[in-house]
Amino acid sequence: MKNKFYFIYLILVLSTTSCNGQATTKNDKQTTKNKKDMQLNPLTEAEKRVILFKGTDRPFTGEFTDKFDRGTYICRQCDAPLYRSDDKFHSNCGWPSFDDEIPGAVKKIRDADGQRIEIICAKCDGHLGHVFYGEGFTDKNTRHCVNSTSMKFIQKKVE
Ligand SMILES: [Zn+2]
Fold it and tell me: How far apart are CA 42 and CA 35, in angstroms?
């Protein structure tokens, strides 16, 4: 008899746990919804063309292509940190190139044509560029090819 009560108690505990699980899912949905309401920086027409409509800077024209100052590249639209200057390298491809992102900052989506992988800001979904693998530029064998227009640069303060 005692065992039976214990069994019922166990079921109650387990069902409470699963309720909590559902609550977490609900919160996740809430976060997604908030994405539309988040505070975003106003964009110029040229910035909208790249960030919202997935345009591309003309090669060798972006303000950060040849910049190698120490600091952090953040999203033009939402200010989320995206890349560190330590991960930037010379690729001579005409766009800023990084072989790694700040963990969790960038989402990767396969293009409609199935050929390339688009990279977007994980926080605001703004278009950044494309990521390529296996080109052998660096040990990480990865090249995030990012439009300067999609980013802002925060110079590292001298310590
Ligand atoms: Zn963003």
Answer: 16
Helical ranges in the chain per DSSP H: 2-37, 45-51
Active-site residue 145, yes or no? yes
Q: How far is the CA of 31 from the centre of ligand 1 (A)?
A: 15
> Could you state, in order of their start, the residue ranges of all structural domains in the chain?
1-37, 45-155
Among 75, 121, 124, 145, the one annotated catalytic = 145
Q: Give 69's pLDDT tier (boundaries 50, 70, 90).
A: very high
Q: What is the pTM of this model?
A: 0.77
CATH architecture of 45-155: Beta Complex (2.170)
CA of 129 to the centre of ligand 1 (A): 13
> Which amino acid does the sequence have at 139?
D
